[in-house]
Amino acid sequence: MATVYLGIGSNIGDKEANLARAVKYLEEIRGIDVLETSTLYETEPVGGPPQDKYLNGVVKVDTAIPPDRLLREVKQIELRMGRKQPGRNCPRIIDLDILLYGDMVLDMEELKIPHPRMAERSFVLKGLAEIAPDAVHPVLGRTASELYGEAIKKGE
């Protein structure tokens, strides 16, 4: 079993309901045990066209599902919820990202763990630091709390 942290976000429709539904769908996947969800935070969009603010959070799960299959599962949830694939930083009904998968480092074309932009995104680090302050970024060697503190200082 591995402890995995997933970033969740929505900026279309009933954002809170979208996130709750995504967590419910995660709970329905055999081999995933949802342990905790962070507070949800309203954030400004990063890049992309003009769009509504996001509601973001982090979900902690335990799973024995390998990372590539877990990616397929979360992408299926996104499709099931009606997410279109218009491109990076566009509005979306749901966004699910694998942030950390235990202490694994993975660099595949379709999946990079840890998430390549998580250390630059205070909205991700805030939720992660809330539920897993001591989770260590396996490449940077710093905890979620340390990374979040650094992001705050930089004004990210």
3D structure, described in words:
The chain has four helices and seven strands. The chain has one domain (about 1-115): Alpha-Beta Plaits, CATH 3.30.70.560. Strands 1, 2, 3, 4 and 5 form a five-stranded antiparallel sheet that branches. The model has no long low-confidence stretch (mean pLDDT about 95). It is globular and about 35 Å long. It has about 160 residues and is of the alpha+beta class.
List the helices and strands and how they pair.
Layout: E1 2-10, H1 15-28, E2 32-37, E3 41-43, E4 54-63, H2 67-80, E5 95-101, E6 106-107, E7 112-113, H3 122-131, H4 144-154
Antiparallel strand pairs: 1-4, 1-5, 2-4, 3-4, 6-7
Helix pairs in contact: 3-4
